[in-house]
Amino acid sequence: MSSMDLKPPPPEYYTSEWKLLSQGAEARVWITPALFHIASDDVETVKQHSICKERFPKSYRHPSLDKHITKSRLKAEAKCLARCRRNGVPCPSVLSIDLAKSCLFLEYLNGCTVREFFLLKTIDENSTEITHAEDDASKNNVSPQQKRPRVSSPSNEQEMSLTILTRTDSVAMQVAYGMGILVAKMHNANVIHGDLTTSNIILQNPPLDSNSSEEWSPKLSLIDFGLAGTAGSKGVSHEEKAVDLYVLERAFVSTHPGSDDLVLEFHRAYKRECTRSDAVLQRLSAVRLRGRKRECFG
Which residue windows does the record flag with biased composition (Polar residues) (predicted)? Predict the structure, then answer.
């Protein structure tokens, strides 16, 4: 993609070797080459394959306010990642930060998202084809953003019947349990993710064989801390932790049909690992009630 086609323009040190992985309302995510130099004196040179998260300016905000907000959010994201790393929570390490260019350089993680791992698709009314997202990712050792689940299209698209299913075998249960441990560790570190979904958890070692669950254990990492926060030594409230869990539950409901057993396994692990989990889960019940009222009455 040419830099002329990008709006707003990419960072000054952008080259044609950069690959755009995604672009949202707040930021663009790039995969960078293995070796490049940042044209800035106050940051370190990144010397490995990495992810660049670039927060671009918002035209609807006053320039001074926009710079202040962007700088604060970059610092907060880097701070939360560093705190997680110090407390043994798997997540990308911060390689470098360029506040002048609003860019955060992070460790590149191979694998597939948990969302892709749980996703099964059946196609065609007469025959069934199930696609596993982790097969492509594990065989080619690429990031989840580069490989997506592939579904073969029948010759007559009008006759195609597509059904989204959720993987709930023993391997999927191990992943759900690992997610509970992962999120509990993050909450024990006084960090709130803010956007906890199965798309923001990477499975770095998807199994090649679904029957190999006995000798296999999932290697999970959290990503995308753009909305994360921390309350320092005072700790975050049970309410904030419960909202994190509620967001994840809603992600399961909207993305993974028939995933009740996975959610139960997640909560089982979270309750075992999280400090004062009983208080958090009790608060979660109140958050769920507010959510149901909002759905009913707007």
Answer: 139-162
d(CA 117, CA 206): 8
Cβ contact 57:8 at 8 Å: yes
The identity of residue 218, as a single letter, is P
Residue 195 falls in the annotated catalytic set: yes
Q: Which candidate in 195, 209, 224, 260 is catalytic?
A: 195
Phi, psi of 72 (to 5 degrees): -65, -40
User: What pLDDT was estimated at residue 242?
Assistant: 95
* N residues, the chain: 298
pLDDT tens for each residue of 264-274: 999 999 999 99
Q: CA dihedral in degrees (259, 246, 176, 121; nearest 10)?
A: 40
pTM of the model as a whole: 0.81
Q: How far apart are CA 152 and CA 63, in angstroms?
A: 47
Structural domains in the chain plus CATH codes: 3-107 (3.30.200.20), 119-166 (no CATH), 170-297 (1.10.510.10)
Residue (of 95, 2, 113) closest to 52 by Cα position:
95
The pLDDT of 9-21, averaged and rounded, is 86
Structure letter (DSSP) for residue 25: S
What percent of the residues of the chain are helix, what percent strand, and what percent coil, each to the nearest 5?
40, 15, 45
Burial class (CB in 10 A: 0-12, 13-18, 19+), 16: exposed
pLDDT 10s digits, 198-254: 999 999 999 876 665 568 899 999 999 999 998 654 567 899 999 999 999 999 999
